[in-house]
């Protein structure tokens, strides 16, 4: 049986469909229910497949991570149902979805059958009106990540007064059809799945030491409730939450992966190594173990995103492809 992403691209019913859809003039609607959330999840899956499984719009794993980590734990934005809007056809098919991401960033996901300068402009008109945030100076601003080769969105944003700031995130991916490289586990460490709730505290502290290496341990607040939120996401599974246990049993590194078996693709939502265990190859070891497990489950493509040098170096060592998003920003004059 051929992969679903190949089969859907050959369905004759799609022939001539895109031109028809553009004439349907999608209208905007707030997403306010749990059913809306899962409709958006399925919309992202369809868009992902139609875009040849490239992230021109979010992978569904990123939507789950946004809701169950950035919203539930970091409170980067109000809840999904308060900030998410969709453009729909008269028949109720979703054409586009927009929402804030936090820190002034927004995300716009558009079905390729509906994509046009007109819909992009209408969506960003809504974004400019509803999603701005205030800087310390009091000036309102919006940030939009745009792939460096996305000429259509760049043209729309230029007309709307946005300016380009080259370089931001590096989006890595690799296909899992080739043999994976070896990454020997350092002596004394053990690579395994995340344990039960009794390990939440140790897992949380490892994460804190991975991303707050310049702070004293006394700054850690000991709250590991965020990890329960992370595990609540629909795509979370413990066998794809890989950890490296140190000789004393403490968790030294981790690679948390959300796998979507519908699209046979996955995203590493969190990868890190506690500062005390750096430079031992643990990050690469937990990632490659995750990739081996994904292959066994039938996954054929994995994504990772980096915006700092350590992550860049790690993903560059195990991934085969990379695209860059530039920062496009719009700043409004300060109100007197």
Can you walk through the features of this model?
By secondary structure, the chain is of the alpha+beta class. The chain has two domains: 4-166 and 326-331, Aminopeptidase (3-Layer(aba) Sandwich); 190-299, 3-Layer(aba) Sandwich (Aminopeptidase), CATH 3.40.630. It is 34% helix and 27% strand. It is built from eleven helices and 13 strands. It has helices spanning 4-8, 17-22, 34-50, 60-71, 80-83, 117-130, 151-159, 200-211, 225-232, 282-297, 309-318; strands at residues 27-30, 85-88, 94-102, 105-110, 133-134, 140-147, 163-175, 190-193, 241-245, 251-260, 265-273, 301-306, 321-331. The strands form two sheets. The chain has a nine-stranded mixed β-sheet, sandwiched between helices. A four-stranded antiparallel β-sheet has the order 1-2-3-4, with helices on both faces. Helix 6 (117-130) packs across helix 7 (151-159) and helix 10 crosses helix 11. It is globular. 37% of the residues are buried. The model is unreliable at 1-23 (pLDDT under 50).
Helix-strand blueprint:
Elements: H1 4-8, H2 17-22, E1 27-30, H3 34-50, H4 60-71, H5 80-83, E2 85-88, E3 94-102, E4 105-110, H6 117-130, E5 133-134, E6 140-147, H7 151-159, E7 163-175, E8 190-193, H8 200-211, H9 225-232, E9 241-245, E10 251-260, E11 265-273, H10 282-297, E12 301-306, H11 309-318, E13 321-331
Parallel strand pairs: 11-12
Antiparallel strand pairs: 1-2, 2-3, 3-4, 5-6, 6-13, 7-12, 7-13, 8-9, 9-10, 10-11
Helix pairs in contact: 6-7, 10-11
């Amino acid at each position: 049986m051929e992969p679903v992403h190949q089969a859907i691209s050959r369905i004759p019913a799609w022939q001539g469909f895109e031109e028809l859809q553009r004439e349907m003039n999608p209208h905007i609607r707030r997403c306010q229910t749990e059913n809306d959330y899962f409709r958006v999840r399925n919309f992202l899956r369809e868009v992902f497949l139609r875009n040849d499984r490239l992230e021109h719009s979010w992978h569904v794993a990123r939507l789950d991570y946004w809701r169950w980590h950035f919203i539930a734990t970091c409170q980067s934005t109000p809840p999904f149902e308060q900030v998410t809007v969709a453009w729909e056809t008269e028949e109720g098919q979703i054409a586009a979805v927009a929402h804030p991401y936090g820190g002034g960033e927004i995300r716009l996901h558009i079905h390729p059958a509906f994509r046009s300068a007109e819909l992009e402009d209408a969506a960003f008109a809504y974004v400019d009106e509803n999603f701005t945030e205030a800087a310390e100076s009091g000036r309102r601003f919006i940030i939009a990540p745009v792939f460096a080769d996305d000429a259509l969105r760049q043209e729309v944003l230029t007309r709307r007064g946005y300016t380009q700031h080259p370089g931001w995130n590096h989006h890595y991916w690799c296909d899992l059809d080739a043999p994976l490289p070896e990454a020997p586990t350092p002596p004394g460490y053990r690579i395994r799945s995340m344990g039960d709730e009794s390990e939440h505290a140790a897992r949380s502290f490892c994460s804190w030491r991975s991303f707050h290496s310049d702070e004293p341990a006394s700054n850690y607040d000991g709250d590991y409730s965020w990890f329960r939120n992370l595990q609540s996401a629909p795509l979370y599974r413990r066998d794809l939450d890989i950890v490296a246990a140190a000789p004393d049993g403490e968790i030294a590194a981790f690679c948390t992966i959300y796998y979507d078996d519908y699209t046979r693709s996955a995203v590493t939502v969190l990868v890190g190594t506690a500062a005390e265990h750096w430079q031992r190859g643990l990050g690469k070891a937990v990632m490659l173990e995750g990739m081996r497990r994904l292959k066994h489950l039938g996954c054929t493509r994995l994504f990772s995103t980096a915006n700092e040098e350590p992550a860049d170096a790690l993903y560059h060592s195990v991934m085969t492809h990379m695209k860059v998003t530039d920062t496009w920003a719009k700043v409004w004059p300060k109100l007197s």
